[in-house]
Amino acid sequence: MKKKGFRSLLFICLGLIATIVFTSAVMMVSPPDPPGRPQAVDVQRDRCKIKYAAPRYDGGSSITGYIIERKYKSSDNWYKVSGKDNPTDLEYTIDGLVEGSEMQFRVRAVNAEGLSDPSKPSDMIMIEDPFVK
Most exposed of 14, 30, 31, 58 (fewest Cβ within 10 Å)? Predict the structure, then answer.
């Protein structure tokens, strides 16, 4: 009788340990931290190339891409500019911009769990031909 009770208790304990370990492993994955603040590295009359740093913490899952967003100076609304496929590089060129406009960019990281909060926005960037002043 004692052996049977001990086996039952052992089975229950092992089941609880397995549940705790499994639950802990599942809970370790979360959305990533925000990427670093984007910086303009090349501004032309109709495009801007930005670079940014990877998040400090990937949320326990590999970063699968980045979402680039733009906001005009005269607006409070952010719009996705990175297209259908999220870029995986730590730099991105935004084409089709209007010369003379001022805008900011921000970046979100994507992993299997979801989206990060947005990065801090870039400084305000004037879209202009660098050779015409």
Answer: 14
Q: In Å, what is the CA distance from 39 to each residue of 49, 87, 97, 125?
A: 8, 16, 16, 9
First to last CA, the chain: 94
Q: Is 65 helix (H, G, I), strand (E, B) or coil?
A: strand
The three-class DSSP label of residue 50 is: strand
pTM: 0.77
Q: What is the DSSP string of 69-130?
A: EEEETT-S--EE-S-SSPP-SSEEEEESPPTT-EEEEEEEEEETTEEPPPPPPPPPEE---T
Give the right CATH number for 39-126 from 2.30.40.10, 2.60.40.10, 3.40.140.10, 1.20.120.1730.
2.60.40.10
